Amino acid sequence: MEENRTPLISFSGADILGGENTVVYGLDLQVYPGEIVYIIGKVGSGKTSIFRTVTAENRLLKGEGQVCGYDLRKLRGRDIPQLRRKIGVVFQDFQLLMDRSVQDNLSFVLKATGWKDRAAAQKRIDEVLAAVDMTTKAHKMPHQLSGGEQQRIAIARAILNQPEVILADEPTGNLDEETAEGILQLLQRINREQGTAIVMVTHNRGICARYPGRVFETRDESCREISL
Question: How far is CA 191 from the centre of its chain?
């Protein structure tokens, strides 16, 4: 039962900032291991601000918030990198480094997160490329890849450090319908096979219907769980 498990993400009475202004008041949200959770809502309603609070980009000034064992109200600057290693993030616009190959994009992340054993790092890169069906693309530059391929590499990057949760911010927003479906199926597979929790921001309610999970809606400066 959920009440016997420790949530990976837990907010209670939390006010979420967007810049200097509060965009969501009194957020109550728990995400448990292995879950799929959607956050839907209009542009500017606070969805991405919630993600930024989870990754400690936005400060939490009111209410309670814990992420992967870290208390967001008490989080020290030097602990933020450790927190972020437990979280994989996938963006709508991929955010790959365009001046280096797929291999070097992934190597860069591993070096930045403390991997020093080159053989172990290479083994991990090979594993994540296999996981996203991109084993033949390591030498390619991002501009040589399609949008769907770039998003697969972005997902590979997100799972490098075996995160406990993936935050996916409109991961199919820039993709055609068929390509988007492949990305959604890939995220489902990672969730199913690796037990990684997934929290996805989307404006597409159809996704929530096809790939069921718990759904929260940001609306009128609040975020509440809803039934579709």
Answer: 12
